[in-house]
Amino acid sequence: AWLDLAQEAGMGYITFTTKHIDGFCMWDTKQTDYNVTRTPYAKDTLAQLAEACHKRKFPLCLYYSCADMHHQNYPSAGRSYELREPEPGDQPDLARYLDFVKAQVRELCTNYGEIHGFWWDANVIKHRDPSINALIRQLQPKAVINNRGYDDGDFGTPERDWDETVNTKASFDTPVEACQAVGYQSWCWREDEDYYTEAHLIRSVQKVLAKGGNYLLNVGPKPDGAIPRESAAILSRIGKWLHPVRESLFEVEPASALTTNRDVVLTRRGHTLYVHLIKEPETASVFLHPLAEMPRRAVLLNTGKAVDVDVADLPRLHNLTPDRCLRIKHLPVNDRPTAGWVIRLDFDHLPSVGLTDKKREETK
Q: 220: buried, middle or exposed (CB in 10 Å: 19+, 13-18, 0-12)?
């Protein structure tokens, strides 16, 4: 059921929390009794998910918290995601704790078939040990590793809306997987959750994908394993948005250097340009200054309907050089929600380069 929902939402892989900061393990680990197989449920949750993923050839990635509020050797010192201090009977010893981590990494990377990613979190002690990621690469050569573990890994992880580079960069110059939860308050199932709006999440997903990143969108199962109705509905609606605009977000290249307009993000494939509206439009027109080529076709991908375009001299552009640009106009902005809109522009010829370095600096 989890994979049905993930695929309905248009997701390309799943990342499963094997151990969070509480230290409870969701697989049949031999390193601690604090795991799911020692509960009345008694089943290896990860093994079931891995089997389902392998049957569908659906890539599986694993999340693992460096911090651990349960393990007696973890050196809790009141930092984020830690206990204030060791509890009675604890024996803080970082070297012994890291031996435990390595043994668990070996289990995860050998007992569940092929995995495609390892997602570290909460390395609040800032300890560096490249040998741990080297072990993952030795055991799982196809796995990519994030930057929150014991070295820099392969990709960055801007979280929620806290990293302004997601907004200020026209495109990502290093591999990025932004992470977000459907719930505003938590990363798990939570009673009385405040859920993000559909429009906010769609624009967030669209912005990151269009800039060349990946997007990890979190939902938390309820105690019985079912995805909450509200979370499932959000993922379903995102899938319905994504289906007609998918061509504009995958196997394309970022192309925002073609315009100074930072209310949109551009992607391209050959002589096709995709215009992503990532902010609520102020008018029924979109201006792509200084681009002044006339496309042979313009379509709102979300509906499949043609839209009007022209190349015009516009009063608000009088202080720019040149003072004319391609305008997408008469968009039906008052007729339906605009979140996630993408306009496809097909050209006979499209510039292969964007703004000059000087103009690019002026638009930052």
A: middle
DSSP string, 28-74: --SS-S-BGGGSSS-S-HHHHHHHHHHHHT--EEEEEES--SS-TTS
Assess whether the previous peptide bond of 322 is cis (omega < 30° from 0): yes
**Regions of the chain where pLDDT drops below 70:** 318, 352-364
149 contacts 101 by C-beta, under 8 angstroms: no
Q: Which amino acid is at 109?
A: C
According to DSSP, the residues that pair with 119 across neighbouring strands are 63
Whole-number Å distance between alpha carbons of 203 and 305: 21
Query: Sign of torsion, CA 46 52 57 58?
Result: negative
pTM attached to this predicted model:
0.93
Q: From CA 114, how far away is CA 216, in angstroms rounded?
A: 20
Three-state DSSP at 85 gives coil
The alpha carbon of 254 is separated from its chain's Cα centroid by a whole number of angstroms, namely 16
| Residue range 302-321, pLDDT digits in tens | 999 999 999 999 887 767 77
Question: CA-CA distances (angstroms) from residue 275 to 249, 285, 290, 341?
Answer: 11, 12, 14, 8
Residue 319: predicted pLDDT: 72
Q: What DSSP designation does 7 have?
A: H
| pLDDT tens track for 174-194 | 999 999 999 999 999 999 999
